[in-house]
Please model this.
Amino acid sequence: MPQRYGDLNLHDTAPRALRVVMGAIAGLCAATALAHVTLVFLHVAPVNPVSQRLQKPIQAWVYPFFEQNWLLFAPNPNAYNTQIFARTGWTTETGEGAMTDWVDISTADIAATEHNPYPSRATQAMLRRAWVSYTTAHGEDDVAYGEWSQIRAEYLRNIAVQRIRERHPHRFETIRLKVVTSTIAPPDTGGAAPTVPAEPATRTLPWWNATSDGS
Model:
């Protein structure tokens, strides 16, 4: 039956609407992929005016799920072993202060990574990279110089709370970290005298307010 002028052709309208939706989804995926590649490239590229100006959005996108432990044109393998210890404190019913012994919260990550062909990114690098980000934002004095420094401190604290809660699910009000860093000895070259690694460096952070629910 011939179509009269003004009749709505549903057979043409539905595919056209579907094509518009599919095109919008494809465009969104392409834009997201392009943004991801661009931000990761700026993260691993040598320092330049663009990466310095966009430092906050780059780090907000990359960490913790897309973290890259290498630099473009300048590979940067990890040269240190980092052990992070935590202890918690609370007030007893009598009003006295109490605290736990130091607990190595790195051991669970190491155990989950060794002999595992497909370790997760969280167990491989989350705790260690949180510590590196903290030292970059604070230096040696543990003083937060801005909002970004405060965010890095809270990020490290929250990971530590999560790790200690998995092993000791007791109530606590404060948490403190101690970090022991030791240099990884270079490989034996066969002729030169072996390099003696430096003594491990220990750094104890101040007490942070925290609760066992991670706040």
